[in-house]
Design goal:
It comes from Octopus sinensis. Its main location: nucleus. This is Homeobox protein SIX6-like. Keywords: DNA-binding, Homeobox, Nucleus. By secondary structure, this protein is mainly α. It has 2 domains: about 80 residues, no CATH class; about 60 residues, Homeodomain-like (Arc Repressor Mutant, subunit A, Orthogonal Bundle), CATH 1.10.10.60. Strands 1-2 form a two-stranded antiparallel ribbon. β1 and β2 form a beta hairpin. It is elongated.
Length: about 190
């Protein structure tokens, strides 16, 4: 697993909730939180009690600061259970399985799902910005990178790929229209230029 760089750490800190919101999440009618949930879940994993790990993570509330470690334990317990059932998945199958079986809401907020290593909330921000400015300046890209917690390189590549996909779709539509005879030859010649 990669170490988080300065940029990612700053974004992680920025994306966490305020202490007041965290206190509200923690209080409530649900079960009391454990002192060391990561250690307890790890202990269950070491003993090979994978169902107990999953039950523990699904039925208790945890501090937001423990969510990342508990998510990793959740995924590892899923993988170990599949191995015991002799269902060792290949990479693509495992990715599909994880997508269909996300971690419980007790260890995630369920809001920011990822697609192609990018949060969907960041993708929405980029889509909205693209609708007004398909070619952002370098300063605008830096500002977008700060707002979306992505790197400048990711922003640059996203805009480049988006423009290429649109251009490719326009050419495909033009060829389909030419084959179906919707446009006259003069219109096709002008569109190609």
């Amino acid at each position: 697993m990669k170490k988080a760089g300065k940029h990612q750490k700053r974004c992680i800190q920025k994306s966490t909730t305020s202490p007041q919101e965290e206190r509200l999440e923690e209080s409530g009618p649900q079960k009391q939180m454990e002192q060391n949930p990561v250690e307890r879940a790890t202990e269950y994993m070491m003993r090979g009690e994978y169902r107990l790990v999953q039950s523990y993570l699904e039925n208790n509330r945890f501090y937001r600061s423990d969510w990342h470690a508990l998510n990793l334990i959740w995924i590892d317990s899923q993988r170990q259970m599949r191995k015991l059932a002799r269902m060792d998945y290949k990479k693509v199958e495992w990715h599909r399985f994880k997508k269909k079986n996300p971690p419980p809401l007790t260890i995630s907020d369920g809001k920011d799902k990822y697609k192609y290593n990018m949060p969907l909330s960041a993708k929405k921000i980029l889509e909205d910005f693209f609708s007004t400015t398909p070619n952002p300046s370098h300063e605008e890209k830096k500002l977008l990178a700060q707002n979306t917690c992505l790197t400048d390189e990711q922003i640059k590549n996203w805009f480049k790929n988006k423009r290429q996909r649109i251009k490719k779709n326009e050419k495909r539509n033009l060829l389909e229209n030419r084959k179906s005879g919707i446009y006259s030859d003069e219109t096709n010649q002008e569109a190609i230029r």
